[in-house]
Amino acid sequence: AWRKHSASEFKTKEEFEKELVRHIETTLARSLYNCDEHAAYSGTALAFRDRLIIEWNRTQQRQTLTDQKRVYYLSLEFLMGRALDNAMLNVGQKDSAREGLKDLGFRIEDVINQEHDAALGNGGLGRLAACFLDSMATLNYPAWGYGLRYRYGIFKQEIVDGYQVEIPDYWLDNNPWEFPRHEITVDIQFYGRVNNIQDVSGKIVHSWEGGEIVQAVAYDVPIPGFGTKTTNNLRLWSSKASSGEFDFQKFNAGDYESAVADQQRAETISAVLYPNDNLERGKELRLKQQYFWCAASLHDIVRRFKKTKRAWSEFPDQVAIQLNDTHPTLAIVELQRILIDLEGLEWDEAWNIVTKTFGYTNHTVLPEALEKWSVPLVQNLLPRHLQIIYDINLYFLQSVEKKFPNDREILSRVSIIEESHPKMVRMAYLAIIGSHKVNGVAELHSDLLKSTLFKDFVAIYGPDRFMNVTNGVTPRRWLHQANPALSALIAKKLGGHEFLTDLTLLDNLENFVDDKEFRAEWSNIKTQNKLRLANFIQQTTGYKVNPTSLFDVQVKRIHEYKRQQLNIFGVIHRYLTLKAMSAEERKKVVPRVSIIGGKAAPGYWMAKTIIHLINKVSAVVNQDADIGDLLKVIFIEDYNVSKAEIICPASDISEHISTAGTEGSGTSNMKFVMNGGLIIGTCDGANIEITREIGEQNIFLFGNLAEDVEDLRHRHFYGDFQLDPHLAKVFEAIKGGMFGDAKNFEALISSIVEHGDYYLVSDDFNSYITTHGMVDEAFKNQDEWLAKSITSVARMGFFSTDRVINEYADSIWNVEPLNVNE
Ligand code: 26V
Fold it and tell me: CB under 6 Å to ligand 1: residues?
């Protein structure tokens, strides 16, 4: 009854238009006569934002009122992409908006394209967090995301003369989706020293004094669920100089410059997203970011809990905190510090609360990605936290000693402190010890964790602390939003859009696999999507590609373990093969467009070399009149979420070809199959479970297995290495200068020929090109290809993040949905 009908709740195009015009004329102070596409975007966004705000407030009030357990998802990355299209579809008013905008002379697609991507993430881990937020809201879980409000998201990539150049991504001007909460601030302390004082009862009290204070300011972003009124909150912290007396003294003393310098130093904390994907570099500013964000979030969570006046023992019944990788591990230490230093709990009681509260998700087994912080660095920045880490370690090692009294080695292996010079804090170990559940992101990955990295911890804690939760993607963005035509066709066949919130319903599509008319419609949609991508390619690169060719796509961060080098060597092999063919032979060839996109970390030289080679191959092949449409090579500049939405629906085949055992899960593999693309891949990450679900006749698997990798590397190391003869020819072509100065690519070749071929490019090459031959053959039979495509989509129900979130909720968080709809 307290919920009144609001003017902003438009239900028709006329009502939407009224809101749009109101915002353009008043909020934006523009006249309709000089309203350009950007103003139309802003007005539309504001109209939808108004709708979200109402449900957002209501959701938060209901969640506070019912006072049940909430989930807090701590992630340094949220790779959200654009918000408007998503908001329109989730609210269910995109059609009103389309019609209303049309009346004013705008195409809705052009309006949507005005929005800057929110690119606060590197790749898979950040995008997973964004899909989780969508599913948590859609499933009505009371859940908050906590992250950092970077002034600069992941850099924009430009290709200049074939080389990657990084451009800063300043994205915050006129962002209608964030709400500054200037009244919600937390003072965060750094540096200083610890005083150990005995209180009246004789107990030692630790007080952290001095140092500097930086202020955290909250910025909130509404997260609408699909087909529900639940609108959750993503809270991002921004850093600001604290307005403490210290600064004023400086001003009074006339030290204006140094006061400004302090302010800039404070604001630097949330200035920029670190662009490394899977490489730990141990920079102090990154540690500052981590503590700043953990401390602000914990303070916020504790403040909310304390309002309920419950006993501390009830904290884990009210709060579940999930750690997205080890980046927020300091939250464990911070909660322990709050409980013992500030709230006066005993160590054991506090630690019991802490471990019941946290869950930790691991995303990689790559050793170079495992976070370690040097002890002197932590000592200086967070002196009290280092003491607590040492205490956690002491009690932990005592318990291990008790359990394995005759094993001296295990203590040094599992110690949180690595006894190197300097000593290092191993964050993954701290995260395991401080959590009640630890999970990997695909079955193979979780098994590998248990048998290698975390083996000792399985022996110590037993197998129950370790589990698998296979990743997924949200079908709202990655099917319905990115591929509206396919979503509509599926809805027509299944009698509605219910599959979008229960993806297992897709299995009913199998009834129509042999339906000729349906197949034709299915095929037509793929063609339309390929045309859209072909247009995009022409506009952005100038290259014309033939949309009837086989579109072969690999888009993801550039990394040696993901093996874009294998892909481009395969492309060169194809080019050489075509060049050697007679005109007669060429007639039988399936024309192909190889599309590769992705960013290299700015300091990752080998990844940049791979990008360079791809661009040089592109330049040579695409202008070869002798080859024409038989092969085109396209590098997509600045691959990001909004480009992925154009690319995923347009692939015939996509590549997920990491060295077996190296990719945690992969999630683009799921996006491509959901859009009716087939995949070529190794037995790695979630490819294995995709195969299990869709059937091995519907996927092109190749290459060595994870269980063989160690042995192969060992043999290479001892000189047992034979370069694959086809790959040798590719190398000859590169060395002969076919793609420009061979010196540019020397390191890429020598990493394979001279330095042990760590990623097994040569070992897998023959299997790779043979399998691509099978792809060509299969594509010639379009009927069978379509059957594979439809059958695969029908069997993808498992890979929705709705399933994933329900698994986390049941087996890690122990939270229940709260339906705010009635
Ligand atoms: C990781 C690291 C680790 C070292 C410190 C710096 C830093 C910065 C960013 C990241 C994130 C990259 C890790 C990542 O994206 N992992 C991916 O997670 C996906 C979601 O679970 C999974 O599908 C991919 O296989 C995995 O590579």
Answer: 122-125, 128, 274, 276-280, 363-364, 369, 371, 441, 471, 663-667, 685
Is 534 part of any domain? yes
- Cα angle, residue 312 at apex, residues 308 and 315 outer, rounded to 5°: 70
pLDDT of the residue at 567: 99
Residue 258 pLDDT level (bands cut at 50, 70, 90): confident
Q: Which of 190, 194, 191 is nearest to 390 (CA)?
A: 194
pTM over 0.80? The answer is yes
Residue nearest atom 1 in ligand 1 by C-alpha distance = 278
Distance from the alpha carbon of residue 808 to the mean position of ligand 1, in angstroms: 19
Give the Cα separation of 547 and 315 in Å (integer): 57
Q: 26: which DSSP letter?
A: I
User: Which domain covers residue 224, as residue numbers?
Assistant: 67-82+117-470+807-813
* Closest residue by CA, ligand 1 atom 23: 666
pLDDT in tens, 639-657: 999 999 999 999 999 999 9
Phi-psi domain of 324 (left: phi exceeds 0; alpha: psi -120 through 50; beta: other): beta
Q: How many domains does the chain have?
A: 2
Q: Give pLDDT tens digits for 483-493.
A: 999 999 999 99
Same domain (yes/no): 597, 744: yes
Q: Which atom, in ligand 1's list, is nearest to the CA of 279?
A: 4
When computed from its CA atoms, the radius of gyration of the chain, rounded to whole angstroms, is 28
Question: What residues are annotated to the active site?
Answer: 363, 556-557, 562, 667, 671
For ligand 1, atom 14, the nearest C-alpha belongs to 125
Residue 1 confidence (pLDDT): 35
Angle of helix 761-780 relative to helix 725-735, nearest 10 degrees? Answer: 100
Residue 539 resides in a domain = yes
How many Å lie between the centroid of ligand 1 and the Cα of residue 677?
A: 24
Percent of the chain with pLDDT over 90: 93
Query: In a 10 Å sphere around its CB, with 0-12 CB exposed, 13-18 middle and 19+ buried, how is residue 721 labelled?
Result: middle
Tell me, what CATH number does 235's domain have? 3.40.50.2000
